[in-house]
Write a structure and sequence with these properties.
Shape: elongated
Helix content: 25-40%
Number of strands: 30
Distance between the termini: 45 Å
Number of helices: 16
Strand order of the largest sheet: 6-5-4-3-2-1-22
Radius of gyration: 34 Å
Largest sheet: 7 strands, mixed
């Protein structure tokens, strides 16, 4: 029996630092290699010493797969490849490969050049790490080695995000990374075929959430911003450079045009241009509407949204600013927040999930005073709003994906333990499959049954259909036939057909059993009683009473009553062929229970 072993080094009952080790039939795969935004010490990277305490990781891993460019999924990659040591294959999609180094370099600048941290990767490390990566296309089957193959599926979420199906022989694991089951203004919905993996490893960020109408949410978002700028306030929207930022920019751009507003909207300098460039380059990854209108008008060429410079934060009057990063844990968004937080006319709108430990998480939990970067105490008077424009699947979306791919087991990662408990119970109740939620460092072993594929002859299927009608494909049923190995392929066929093909003589096997009992009645009356009993319980087979008081059932089952009418000692003889083993055995046990022996 094959085994799948899973150990989360990150994202086990936690959001952030996604890094999951999977051993599939002896092949070691690392799924994502992220950093934790809530820590500034050694805990920000996965604990690679779990894999090996000495030397590099190359000989211990068959491949590494990166699902998308968010830093909680790829942020530790240069650290792992260049500082710990890994030279094996790394797979990601083309957009992820293009955008990853930009976000890694931006974060390195914030961490090293502004905060002065030393135990961090360098620009050269990022370049060297990206040279080791291989870009894959959607639905392309990539042969990692002689046994392991991987395949990418569209995940929505952000540009280039993919789910990955890993396969060794008959056994497979589907890893979702982050995904979204509903299309938005710039990306399509996640899609995967009915691959029936042995294990589905799915994110569960919003395990207990079912989102309200998107249109209502957008209307509320626009109203909050309009009301704030109308009274002269400033609105800060912390976002990550690509993904949700483009979604909200398209929304505000359309609204500003419709309302003919002249209040300035700004986006972090340089990032708009970069984002624009990559959306043009990878237009095939966007939704159908953008693809259709792209030739006439590029949705990402914004008229009302201008590049932001740091000095603008001190300008008087209302404005809207999109600034990175999205959880207020560093960078420009944190700098602007510090300036605007003491003014009650201002507003910050958090449009997505914030990891525990970040400034975003603290203010969403009601903090009124904050010590930022270990030295500055800030009073928070501005309005703090949370509106979920997150590009993650909600509980309904997760259930939809399970229904779509039909896994044999489910594992929840990238979520909070309490929320996972709720979703785990729902999955077990609705789908009847085992569901796991391991913590970081906890090992889960799943035993997988091996199935043997076999071709089925047409004549065999016709015979089965004629015997019992067309079977329900969702229900398992037992069929009798012969397995024949031919040209290294197994064939299931009718026994008589198999005998002809191999040139053997057919023999009939019959089973006979005798039941002794005491009864003073006549043979004909006893036969009539048994006939009535059998007919009432066996409804799927023809039951006939013959002139000699014997009873036939199906093609080969025969019941005879032996003895003399005036004698007490009598016996029932039951005989059946191998083909009718099921009904023959059933009748023997049935008559044993009914007759007084």
């Amino acid at each position: 029996m094959a085994e799948i072993r899973i150990v989360p080094l990150g994202a086990g009952q936690d959001v952030g630092r996604s890094c999951i080790l999977v051993t599939l039939c002896g092949k070691n795969i690392m799924l994502d290699c992220g950093m934790h935004m809530g820590y500034n010490d050694d805990r920000r990277f996965p604990d690679f010493s779990y894999i090996t305490r000495e030397g590099g990781l190359t000989e211990h891993l068959d491949c590494v797969i990166i699902s998308h460019f968010h830093l909680d999924h790829c942020g530790a990659l240069p650290y792992m490849t260049e500082m710990v040591g890994y030279d094996g294959p790394i797979y990601m999609t083309h957009p992820t490969k293009a955008i990853c180094p930009i976000l890694l370099e931006d974060y390195r600048k914030i961490t090293v050049e502004r905060k002065g941290e030393t135990k961090f990767f360098t620009s050269e490390h990022i370049k060297m790490a990206m040279k080791k990566t291989t870009a894959v296309n959607l639905h392309q089957v990539v042969q990692v080695d002689d046994e392991l193959e991987i395949k990418a599926y569209y995940a929505g979420h952000v540009l280039g995000a993919a789910m990955f199906l890993m396969k060794v022989g008959q056994h497979s694991v589907l890893y979702t990374g982050d995904y979204n089951m509903t299309p938005d203004r710039h990306l399509g919905a996640a899609w995967v075929d009915k691959c029936r993996p042995d294990l589905l490893i799915t994110e569960s960020t919003y395990a207990t959430t079912i989102r309200d109408s998107k249109r209502c949410r957008e209307r509320d978002f626009l109203k909050k911003i309009h009301d704030c700028v109308d009274r002269g306030g400033k609105v800060l929207i912390p976002v990550f450079a690509l993904g949700r930022a483009q979604e909200l920019c398209i929304l505000l751009e359309t609204y500003w045009h419709r309302m003919n507003l002249n209040i300035p909207i700004y986006f972090s300098l340089g990032l708009t241009e970069k984002a624009n460039h990559y959306y043009k380059l990878f237009i095939a990854w966007t939704n159908q509407k953008i693809k259709k209108t792209f030739v006439q008008r590029n949705m990402f060429d914004f008229k009302y949204i201008k590049p932001f410079e740091r000095s603008y934060a001190d300008n008087p009057g209302p404005m809207v600013v999109f600034a990175t990063p999205g959880m207020l844990h560093a960078g420009l968004s944190l700098q602007v927040f510090k300036k605007w937080a003491p003014n009650e006319n201002n507003m910050v709108i958090m449009p997505g999930y914030c990891v525990a430990g970040t400034v975003g998480h603290k203010i969403l939990n009601g903090a009124k005073k904050l010590e930022i970067e270990g030295r500055q105490m800030i009073e928070i008077k501005l309005s703090v709003q949370y509106m979920s424009f997150s590009a993650h699947a909600d509980a309904k979306g997760i259930m939809q994906l399970i229904r779509q791919c039909q896994p044999k087991n489910v594992m929840l990662v990238h979520g909070e333990a309490i929320k996972m408990d709720f979703l785990k119970a729902k999955i077990k109740q609705e789908f009847g499959v085992e569901c796991y939620k391991p913590a970081n460092g906890e090992t889960v072993c799943i035993q997988c049954r091996s199935s043997i594929p076999a071709d089925v002859s047409v004549s065999f299927l016709k015979r089965e259909a004629s015997l019992s009608g067309f079977p329900d494909p969702k229900k398992q049923r037992i069929v009798h036939g012969a397995l024949l190995m031919k040209d290294n392929r197994l064939q299931l066929m009718d026994t008589s057909e198999a005998i002809k093909q191999v040139g053997l003589q057919e023999h009939q096997i019959r089973f006979t059993s005798s039941l002794q009992f005491h009864h003073s009645g006549e043979i004909a009356d006893i036969a009539q009683t048994i006939h009535s009993l059998v007919k009432s319980t066996v409804t799927d087979y023809p039951v006939q009473m013959l002139a000699d008081n014997s009873i036939t059932i199906s093609d080969s089952v025969l019941i005879n009553i032996n003895g003399e009418d005036d004698e007490m000692d009598k016996s029932i003889l039951i005989s059946w062929s191998y083909d009718d083993e099921e009904i023959g055995s059933y009748l023997l046990n049935f008559l044993k229970s009914k007759m007084i022996m």
